């Protein structure tokens, strides 16, 4: 859809002297923004509002940058509003969530493509031609896989929340953080740092999902995960801390909290999330700190051993007495 890098199209968008952008779009660019808006039956300012929500910057009025798919995408969003399926603000929210998710996907897939070309020893001068050949093979496969994964994730999410009051969600939240990551990142090369992040994100995602939790997001050196069951989050935390790591992998520290959260566009917010994050910062390397409500949920569960620690001042939340969590 539209300019795949989200760039302002002046010479930056014209990196395709060899037809590179068309190779990924898989169709020719033939319309200006005004033509697309006219074909969709809306003023150009409104069309640009939807495009910006998807993460694409405005382009010059006379730039021929848009394809038939851009027209169809705009018509689809306008149709969702005119049919009453969503109001316009909700369509814009959907567009923003799609834009954020697909931008991250696109960046990661492009990076992996560069790594493949590097490993194959393709010279920089030959990259555009190699990218074109790669696009012809990879784009259709990735498109099918993207739709498949999205449908499965949507089915799972709908099953979880179909009968849930989203204004009063109570969850257990875990926040795991690599210790001394900033210092370590200054001591290793960029490629070593990338491998470290890949290893951490892959390991943490495997442990969280196999343990019955859900990864909300990863932030390079940390991961936020949730479950509606306190013992599931606590067990995941223990597995994360106990997981044998390769040489040079920093220790983890984890903060846990239970309470009301606000779900919004795939992310979680609120005091419970803040508490888990703050406790992570206060935890010693290799340890797990749980808030009082989380400890109360785990009390009596012989799988865990809880030990109250001295009262701590938690930034923004006052004083409280957290508990360390270890195996029972």
UniProtKB/TrEMBL annotation:
Residues 172-280 form the Guanylate cyclase domain. It comes from the Bacteria. It holds the Pfam family Guanylate_cyc. One of its GO terms (molecular function) is adenylate cyclase activity. GO terms for biological process: cyclic nucleotide biosynthetic process; intracellular signal transduction. Signal peptide: none annotated. SUPFAM superfamilies: Nucleotide cyclase. Coiled coil: none annotated. PANTHER family: ADENYLATE CYCLASE, TERMINAL-DIFFERENTIATION SPECIFIC, ADENYLATE CYCLASE, TERMINAL-DIFFERENTIATION SPECIFIC-RELATED. Belongs to the adenylyl cyclase class-3 family. This is Adenylate cyclase. It comes from Nonomuraea wenchangensis.
